[in-house]
Amino acid sequence: MIRSLACILACSRLLSAALLSAAAVGAAQASIVVDRAPTGTYYTSLVNTAAGQNFLVQFTLGSSIDVTGFQIFTAAAAIPVGTAVTVRIRADAGGVPASSNLHEFNDNVDASFNFDARSDISELSFGAITLGPGTYWMGVSGAGLNLSWISYDNGGPIDAPDQTVMTGNVDQGFSGLSYDLAYRILSASSGTVPEPATLALVGLALLAMGAARRRA
User: Fold this and answer.
1) What is the maximum span of the chain, computed from C-alpha positions, in angstroms?
2) Do 34 and 62 fall within a single domain?
3) Does one domain contain both 214 and 142?
4) What is the pLDDT of residues 45-76, one digit of tens each?
5) What is the CATH number of the domain that holds 93?
6) Are residues 90 and 171 in the same domain?
7) What is the DSSP string of 163-206?
8) Are residues 197 and 155 part of one domain?
């Protein structure tokens, strides 16, 4: 009897650990809702600061999305985790950014990953911002440090119409040679499916608990 109770307690702890693991996996995963990762060759690195030159990129959503993060392709080994950034989001006004921000806030780079010899991916995550279907402009710039933004020649025009240069919060229109600024926009995954190993652990714990209860 005592051994059965001990087994039940042990199985309960195993089940709790498995469920926590599944929850952690679900929370950590995010989906890419806009992907402008490089497909061509490196072109240049552009100065990108919130108070000076910075950039907005245009994107379109087909449905309502909770935006929870941004990946900006930056100069390799140049942007440490914790770097302060400014995030700006504007509505579209006939193919150009609206004159004021829908959202503007400060945040920090949460993670950094190497992409190639010239660039890293600097990632930031933030509380969900719900954007309905439509066209928007978004940018992430250094709040102090230059958050150098990498551009690639992906085969499009030099002056891409879906990006614009700002001075502080003032849109200057795009002038200069930049090709395609590289970035991704992220959203928290909904209905995340736990990994097979986690599901197996949950099943094993439930079976063991059932056997222990029958013996008790």
Assistant:
1) 79
2) yes
3) no
4) 999 999 999 999 999 999 999 999 999 999 99
5) 2.60.120
6) yes
7) EEEEETTEE----S--BEE-EEEEEE-SSPPPPHHHHHHHHHHH
8) no
Query: Other CB atoms closer than 10 Å to residue 160's CB: what's the count?
Result: 17
Q: Are residues 70 and 141 in the same domain?
A: yes
Same domain, 115 and 159: yes
Separation of alpha carbons 11 and 210, rounded Å: 9
Angstrom distance (rounded) from CA 86 to CA 76: 20
* Spatial separation of the C-alpha atoms in residues 50 and 46, rounded to whole Å: 13
Report which residue type is found at 76. A
How far apart are the C-alpha atoms of 185 and 72, rounded to whole Å?
A: 9
What range does the domain containing 49 cover?
Answer: 30-188
pLDDT tens profile 163-203? 999 999 999 987 666 899 999 999 986 444 445 554 454 45
To which residue do tokens 């099943």 refer?
A: 203
Output the DSSP codes for 45-78.
EE--BSSSEEEEEEEEESS-EEEEEEEEEEETT-
- Answering whether pTM is above 0.90, one says no
CA torsion, ordered 87, 165, 134, 129, to nearest 10 deg = 0
Same structural domain for residues 57 and 41? yes
